[in-house]
Design goal:
Order of helices and strands of chain A: EEEEEEEEEEE
Distance between the termini of chain B: 32 Å
Radius of gyration of chain B: 13 Å
Helix content of chain B: under 10%
Structural class of chain B: mainly beta
Structural class of chain A: mainly beta
Number of helices of chain A: 0
Largest sheet of chain B: 6 strands, mixed
Shape of chain B: globular
Strand content of chain A: over 45%
Radius of gyration of chain A: 13 Å
Largest sheet of chain A: 6 strands, mixed
Strand content of chain B: over 45%
Oligomer: heterodimer
Number of strands of chain A: 11
Number of strands of chain B: 10
Helix content of chain A: under 10%
Number of helices of chain B: 0
Distance between the termini of chain A: 38 Å
């Protein structure tokens, strides 16, 4: 029973365009959401987070949107750069500080 | 370095053997997590330590898996009588007591069971 799902295993975009990565969750107790980025042979690194009291959080080229009624969040990267090519995991927790439940990841490829 | 350190980085073992994977968390971080990533899969939670509290072992897939954390710092994940389905990258992460939800991951230990 996957509580956090990333339905697109891969995404390919052109450099300079927008990348949109999607994530759905089923557990209504989740109220804190994070995105992690993972390069090959490295551990995941934290990218951006959002609390359920917000519907948008922005950090430079990265913006996370949260739609609580739809139990859906998305990560927008604009403009996309080749260095953004990585696997992106969304994660959720019932409260900040508790253990995270991760999605299956989406491999993003940004083509020059 | 100052990050989470894991060893060994790669381990190849024969089915039925026991393996130990080690994690050195970031100094001062009270929470420590073990996850694993099987080929083509997401991150699967295994076990969570927080300070001196009893660990949350709810993610351990079988009784062949165990973990301990000595002195509130270094952790060892032990897999007994390894099976081929145990092959995965085992990732350790730590976080400070006042947690924003951000975990700091090590580079992982890749386990291959032949």
């Amino acid at each position: 029973d996957q509580q956090v799902k990333q339905n697109s295993p891969s995404l390919s975009v052109q450099e300079g365009r927008i990348s949109i990565l999607n994530c759905d969750y089923t557990n209504s107790m989740f109220d804190y959401f994070l995105w992690y980025k993972k390069y090959p042979a490295e551990g995941p690194t934290f990218l951006i987070s959002i609390s359920s009291i917000k519907d948008k959080n922005e950090d430079g080229r990265f913006t996370v949107f949260l739609n609580k009624s739809a139990k859906h969040l998305s990560l927008h990267i604009v403009p996309s750069q080749p260095g953004d090519s990585a696997v992106y995991f969304c994660a959720a927790s019932p409260n900040a500080g508790n253990m995270l439940t991760f999605g299956g990841g989406t491999r993003l490829m940004v083509k020059p | 370095g100052a990050g989470v350190s894991q060893s060994p980085s790669n381990k190849v073992t024969e089915k039925g053997k026991d393996v130990e994977l080690r994690c050195d968390p970031i100094s001062g971080h009270t929470a420590l997590y073990w996850y694993r990533q099987s080929l083509g899969q997401g991150l699967e939670f295994l076990i969570y330590f927080q300070g001196n509290s009893a660990p949350d072992k709810s993610g351990l897939p079988s009784d062949r898996f165990s973990a301990e954390r000595t002195g509130g710092s270094v952790s060892t994940l032990t897999i007994q009588r390894t099976q081929q389905e145990d092959s995965a990258v085992y990732l350790c992460a730590s976080s400070p007591h006042i947690n924003t939800g951000e975990l700091f991951f090590g580079e992982g230990s890749r386990l291959t069971v032949l």
